[in-house]
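Lecture 7 notes: from sequence to structure.

We start with a single chain of 454 residues. Read the sequence below before looking at the structure.
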Amino acid sequence: MDNQSSHDSMMGSMASEETRTTTSPHIRSSATGETPKPATRAWTTRLLVLGIVLAAVNLRPAITSLGALLEEVRDGLGMSGSVAGLLTSVPPLCFAVFGVMAPRLARRFGPGAVVCAGMAAITAGLLIRPYVGGTAGFLAASALALMGIAVSNVLMPVIVKRWFPDRVGSMTGLYSMALALGTSTAAAATVPVTDLLGGSWQTGLAVWAGLAAVAVLPWIPFVRQRDGVRQDDGVRQGGVVRQQGAAPAGQAPAREERPALRITRSRTAWALAVFFGLQATAAYITMGWMPQVFRDAGVPASTAGLLLAVTMVMGVPLAFVIPRVATRLPHQGPIVLVLGVCGLVGYAGLYLAPAAGAWVWALLLGVSNCSFPLALTMVGMRARSGAGVAQLSAFAQSTGYLISIPGPLLVGVLYQHSGGWGLPIALMAGLMIPQMVVGVLAGRDRTVEEEAAR
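Now the structure, written as tokens:
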């Protein structure tokens, strides 16, 4: 398979960097404090790449598996329609609330330890929620899983920037491709797997805890690295990344205390946060409502579900390509505009001929939804240091997910009161314009450290 060969090629290219000691942070033996030998560094790099991929695969099944069985869950728990509708806004709310905690936790315990704990929280939440009984318990267990997703969401760009500073595009692409693969797989496979295991919705939801448990394992060796996200991580000098204040081998790396970055002073940070929020709004509206648009146009229910799967699968190859292209450009604005135009054409098609050109519109909206990996790539490019990336990632994602909360609910209100899809589609298309504008602003070649210092 092309995706598998791309993954194997990436694993090899990461290992080939074992001799470039200046491009990775200080990986020290827990027993001796000495810098590991090249063979150890290569093994550590492969394990970290595997951990990133497995973590990314587990960042969406908690959401999309529930969507596939929502009717059965409602019947089983006696959940009201209003509570079920609220579930569509719970994920971005949890991402916003818990995501802001990630940088502080990373400084205290180290990013590897936090991601490991995040994968464990996802495992526990997915395993518990089908069997706790009652709507309150189901929501609480879902929140536990979403908390793990939130902190991992924020820290993935940080880990990529810190460990692979010369391969931000490639690693972000690999991570985004794995995330898209996990999203589409859970959406497509949950119902068949549930039928195969006896038809119980509890089993169909709990089975995804097994995949999350596997993702815990590669992160265990990184739990003891407690140096956290230092202010001096990833400073580039003379074309290579060096650690300021680095101590001789056998000594703990020196920490340089600097004032906290005032991220809210950066216009680029605000532009990136709004861009992240608007693309998330479009994604959640697409996942929640696009099948209904097609069904109301006369498309069979099974075909409507397949069209959504096609839209989501488009993110698998493009999520690997777009970040690699983005890192080669001084300005990411052109990519933002191309993705935005695809979205506008897709929405126009949904309005004018939703059934006749359904497959074309699904493909175009799938391309447009690839603004997510582009946003993650820009997070890694708009800050100079690991600490800057941590703050920017938390700010952009937490603010962005807060912005995205009303979107799916507003589409539902407009649909209910207007009796058709004209106004909701006009809203979707209208939001694409400011998304393109702020995306162009966020894509300019500058860093948040420079702007915050002015």
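The mean pLDDT is 80. Keep this in mind for problem set 3.
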